[in-house]
Amino acid sequence: MSGALIDARGLVVDRGGRRVLDGADLALHAGERVGLGGANGAGKTTLLRTLVGLERPRAGTVTAFGRERVSERDFHEVRLRAGFLFQDPDDQLFCATVREDVAFGPLNRGLDDDEAHTIAAATLARLDLAHLAERVTHRLSGGEKRLAALAGVLALEPEVLLLDEPTGGLDADHRARLLDRLAALPLAMLIVSHDPGFLAALATRRLVLADGRPKAAEATAGAAVL
Amino acid sequence: MTAPLDRIDARVRCAAALVLVVVTTVVTSPAALAAAAAVALGLAASARLRPKRLAARLAHVEGVVLVLLVVVPFSVPGAPVARVLGFTMTAEGLARAAALAVKVNVCLLVTLALVGTLEPTRLARALAGLRVPDRLVHLLLFLIRYLDLARLDVARLVEAMRVRGFRPRPSGRTRRALAQAAGAALVRAIERAERIEEAMRCRGFTGRLPRPRSAPLTAVDGAAAGGVVLVTAVLMALELAA
């Protein structure tokens, strides 16, 4: 398929001596929000990691933003354009304050301090998180951490979002807020989730990862499969 | 709550602490040491160190000082003043022991007042501003951020053991269980570190943290730096006059 933002073909990945992905194909087009389900250990996270080069496949190719990506340098560029929200926000928030953490990505893109902090403030405001800016990251609640981590990813102004279990550990209120914010973003997304309601509200297309490959999920059976 | 010292830039405070500690370790004359002690007490007062916490922190070191006070008078050659259990105590030894005790406490007070009262993050930034190698600054920053999480990980492990009825006893089984818990804590910490590094790479990290902007130095900072120079000059003059 040409014109895909991310197009992975025939990915084979082993982890811990087990074949996790076995000839997996996945294409993500502009404007699409693809929901990816599957059993625990089916390889959903591994698939996301492979798309941004944190995992190198034994076979298969990753084409992102029009170029095949092989080296760490290739993937560095991919990561700046495809934001990855990790399962555990504590892995992602490492700066002392929220504002510094959100500015981290822009600074890595080579912006100076003022520009980066302007972007950080704007990103936080866009997510209604301006009040968290000066808070110390490890004292945030679980829901606040998740939203702050999302702000850190969005501050890179990515073209694609890769979300790994974005609703994990969120209460109903924070889950609804997250859903709101994500639905308002005009980005292509790949959403790994066990939350059928969340995927139903957000995804434009549903896949289930089984036997090492993503397959189209039947619309009606979606919830049952998950 | 803001102490007078808080108006001084953290970089100036770190550099001042280093200078004063070095000068204190160099001087030996009683007059210079007395002056250094006065400066240290003055700094402790203006940093509003709480006496209780200060005492608790000093207590860690006073044990070592005590050993010095007992051993040094007998191990420096000089004019004998007394004999204890066949060992000769010398006047020079007594003087050296007293000087050491003063030096150790002065250095501690100065460091606690100038550096110990800084917020850890502010300290890390100050060190970066003073061109301390990035790696050391990163170590400090990550320690600040993740020590708490590591501690929570360990606490969760211990709780998980306790809710299944584990009680430490002097037995081989207890030792094995504790060893497994320690191993698990270590593995979790390493895995967490790997995930953090990956998360950073996902946001474009290539091995260098952006240096935070540091505020320009003010007149207060200039005055403080001048004060340190003056103190150093006075201490050295007292030392050379002796």
- β-sheet strand percentage of chain B: under 5%
Share in helix of chain A? 25-40%
Going by CATH, the homologous superfamily of chain A would be: P-loop containing nucleotide triphosphate hydrolases
Number of strands of chain B: 2
Biggest sheet of chain A, open or closed, and with what strands and sense? 6 strands, mixed
N to C succession of SSEs of chain B: HHHEEHHHHH
Q: Give the oligomeric state of the chains in this entry, treating copies of one chain as homo and distinct chains as hetero.
A: heterodimer
What separation lies between the terminal Cα atoms of chain A?
A: 27 Å
Apparent shape of chain B: flat
Write the CATH architecture name of chain A.
3-Layer(aba) Sandwich
3D architecture notes:
The complex is a heterodimer of chains A (226) and B (242). Chain A has helices at residues 44-51, 72-81, 89-92, 98-108, 113-126, 142-154, 172-183, 196-202, 222-225; strands at 6-15, 18-28, 33-38, 59-64, 67-69, 82-85, 160-164, 188-192, 205-210, 213-216. Chain A is of the alpha/beta class and 226 residues long. Chain A has a single domain (6-225), classed as Rossmann fold, CATH 3.40.50. The longest helix of chain A is centred in the middle third of the chain and has 14 residues, at 113-126. Chain B has 242 residues and is mainly α. Chain B is 73% helix and 4% strand. Chain B has helices spanning 10-26, 30-46, 51-75, 91-114, 120-129, 134-162, 172-202, 219-241; strands at residues 80-84, 87-90. In chain B, strands 1-2 form a two-stranded antiparallel sheet. The chains are: A alpha/beta (226), B mainly alpha (242). Chains A and B meet through helix 2, helix 3 and helix 4 of A and helix 6 and helix 7 of B.
Please render the helix and strand layout as text.
The complex is a heterodimer of chains A (226) and B (242).
Chain A: E1 6-15, E2 18-28, E3 33-38, H1 44-51, E4 59-64, E5 67-69, H2 72-81, E6 82-85, H3 89-92, H4 98-108, H5 113-126, H6 142-154, E7 160-164, H7 172-183, E8 188-192, H8 196-202, E9 205-210, E10 213-216, H9 222-225
Parallel strand pairs in A: 3-8, 3-9, 6-7, 7-8
Antiparallel strand pairs in A: 1-2, 1-4, 4-5, 9-10
Chain B: H1 10-26, H2 30-46, H3 51-75, E1 80-84, E2 87-90, H4 91-114, H5 120-129, H6 134-162, H7 172-202, H8 219-241
Helix pairs in contact in B: 1-4, 1-5, 1-8, 2-4, 2-8, 3-4, 5-6, 6-7
